Amino acid sequence: LPQSHHMKIGLVGFAGSGKTTVFNALTGLGAPVGFGGEVRLGTVRVPDDRIDTLSRIFSPKKKTYAEISFCDVPGEHGSHKKGLSPRGLQQIRDQEALCLVLQDFNNPALEGAPDPLMDLEAFHTECVFADLEIVEKRLDRARKERADAHEIATFELAQANLEEERPLRLIPDADLDRSLIKGYGILSDRPLLVVVNRDEEHAADPLAGKLDTRIKELGAAGLTLCASIEADIAGMEPADQEEFLADLGLKESALSRFIRSAYDLRDLISFFTVGEDEVRAWTIRRGTNAHRAAGKIHSDLERGFIRAEVTPYEVFMDYGSEAAVKNAGKLQVEGKNYLVSDGDIMHVRFNV
Fold this sequence. Notes:
The chain has 352 residues and is an alpha/beta fold. The chain is built from 14 helices and twelve strands. Helix content is 40%, strand content 21%. The radius of gyration is 23 Å and the shape is flat.
């Protein structure tokens, strides 16, 4: 079976940031809020009108949306010092992408006014120091074992950036061989989404000022929401949700906004497979070729790849059926190196 292809995002945040409430706003799960020590998981479908439309046309036995899994990583409690415990760090390292929840509302349980910028810096610094420790250990060992020059240079580059408190995610792939640092749980190389959790009055205000600038400098994406209200809305029937969101001055749910930010941040796109058995969305990085995309569906398709028959979604909708697309000469027959676009409907021809 192909491995699961959905993005796994860990929600992290200091005590009192409203992290579990954000988890509830995104998943609609209504997890209990408070000092819970256990990891909570929630998987959500990525809403996509194109799948709904294709399913009306093909009437498949099942329709499968792309998915995102959220993991509510237990908060850091019991100390006034803001920091990440070794156990907390390990649970964060298991996540593919990180979502840092920042408190930007008055929380009566906490002393002092909210300072999301300070919390962002505290988290960033923690990640950099944790990474530096790993990189320096690895570098010492590589030098002792006289590892090859390329490997040593890779860890030296990582070290130099971390010493400047630059997150590794800012280094382009061309400069940093990520295959060498992959297994080490480097936090500052993970994609980072920052959710600024506000009070109701400011829920729809755009992100601005120093906080916005700093989020961009760290190579992260920022999003604002009022988690307490969005969590209530997420538990409602879809028909009622729009009305309540409109009252807040919002057009779409926290989840929809979050997914768009996450897809943009990771440069993700969706392609589709269609038929009477299943209409399904597959998530890939932009710039993935047809051969690799076929492997997402099944390893047999990658091994025995002959060609891909591709119809862009818009073209399909113009003609209304596969037969009509073919008759109009609009079916694209593509080889292994074709770069798949967002919305491509793809049939892979293969032999095994």
